[in-house]
Each structure stands twice: as C-alpha cells, then as structure tokens.
Amino acid sequence: MAETARILERGYRAYEGERGGVAAAVRTTAKHSIQRSLGLKRTIWQKILPALSIGLVYIPAIVFVGITAMAGRFNINADFGPTYVEYYGFVNAAILVFTAFVAPEVLCTDRRSGMLGLYLASPLNRNTYLLAKTLGVMIILSIVTIGPVLLVLIGKTILGAGPDGFDGWLLTFGRILLGGLGISALYASLSLAISSLTSRRAVASAAIVIVLIASAAAVGSLLSAGGATNLQAFDFFILPFQLVYTIYGKRWPATDYEPLASWLVIVANVGWTLLFAGITWWRYRKLTVTK
C-alpha cells in the first residue's frame, strides 16, 4: 500500500459547498444550544435533569386530561381541575428549576471551553451570537411554559370539554401562546444576564435560583410589613405569572394585598426584560475574546 501512495495536491483548498450566511449560522447555533440544554447527543447523565424538569411540568397536565376523560364514568365534573391560567400555580417551581440550568448551559460553557472564540470566527458577531443563544433559550423555556397548557387545551377539546365555539378556542390558544412567551421572555433575559457574569455553570444556576426566590421573599416580607403594593414589580419569580393573569383578563388571586394594576404588570415585565437583555449585551460588548 505504501508503495502505491501518491500525493496528488498540496496546499489550501477552499470550501466549495453552499454558504448559508449569517441566518444559517444563527439557526445552527440556536439548534445546537437547544440540543445541548436538553442533553441530546450527550451521555445519559446530561439527559436526567432536563427530562425530570420537563416531566414535572407535564405530569399534572396528563393527570388533569385523564381525569376529564374519565369524568363521565366516575360522575366527576368535566371542569374539575385548574383553569388554563391557574395551571401555572402547579408547575411554577419546576419552571424555575428548568430555567436555572438552561441559560448557564448555553452561555457559560462556551466561554469556559473557549468555543466562544470559534463562534465569533464564523459569520456570527457578538450580536448575532447572542441572538442565536436567546432564540435557543426562548424555545427551550417555551417547552415548559406553553407546552403543558397547550396539551390541556388539546386534550379537553378532543374530549368535548374545551372552550365554547371556534372563536373561544382561538382566544384561549392565543392567550396560552402569549402568556407562555411572556414567562419565557422575562426568565430567559434574567437567566442570560446572570449567566453572562460568570463562566461557571453551577454559580450561575445557583445565582438564578437565589435571585428569583430572594426577590419573592423580600417583596413578600415588605408587603407584610405594610409596604407599597407596587413593590410586587420587583418580585421576579411571580411577576411573569401576574402577566399571564393579565393576559387572561383575570385578577391575581393574592388575598393579602391589592394586586398590581394591569398596565404596571405589562410595563414591569417589558422593562425588566429589556434591562436584563441590555446587561447581557453590555457584558458581551466588553468581554475580551481570543479567536
């Protein structure tokens, strides 16, 4: 074999395949971020936490749809269980856990492993890189903020216990999408901002949990002490769920204090989301990257 080997050509050979450009690079990076966060194409151990978190969010939906299916047989009211907006009260803790590991897995790993420099040597710049990562995180979080409630809607519709009329169904469907995206937007921007400040995933995950829980505890304590009700705008854990109630035209079910005005809920969610996104953008503009 060695006697017949020949060197046919030497030197650099240019890439001759199709070039997708920036848009293709953004899509590919977002897709890879989704796969990495969900543990796809990785060892079984990297799949456990995402699977558990997603399972905890979907199990109540499956149970409630199952109860609706058996309502006639066991003389149970078909409307048994939470409404679409109330469903989040059963799974908000699981959503928090899921949020805490998604963004650190997406951002911190690239900086710690040196992959960020390789990304920026591609058609991506810092802005399009962050766009791709944000899209990835938003899509992943939408799995737990939109998916389970949508499953309940579809299940109840098939069983004849869904919204009245096609217009009612479309309205409920739109509210589910908008509410889920609202939760995903605030949680994604907050978790990305925290993850942009450290290259250690464990530190970022712990900080996300602490910020969300501590803000809820601090605001709750201040309200119990007679603080202004507008302090609820600083409760990052509950604020996006208040937005969901606003979207559904429902009153926030807190009984110990007056809920935020609808306009303030919307402004607070949009404002915090933009602020956290700005922190992430500023952090990456200042970050020194070796290509």
Automatic annotation (TrEMBL):
Kindly give the membrane topology term recorded for this protein: Multi-pass membrane protein
- Can you tell me where the transmembrane regions are? 48-67, 87-108, 129-154, 169-190, 202-225, 260-282
State its location(s).
Membrane
Which InterPro entries does this chain map to?
A: ABC2_TM
In the record, what terms sit under GO molecular function?
A: ABC-type transporter activity
Report the main location listed first in the record. membrane
Keyword Thylakoid listed:
no
Give residue ranges for domain ABC-2 type transporter transmembrane.
Answer: 88-281
GO annotations of cellular component type: membrane
Q: Does the keyword Membrane apply?
A: yes
- List the Pfam families: ABC2_membrane_3
Key words of the record: Membrane, Transmembrane, Transmembrane helix
- Protein name, please? Unannotated protein
**Which species?**
freshwater metagenome
What broad taxonomic lineage does this protein's source fall under?
unclassified sequences, metagenomes, ecological metagenomes
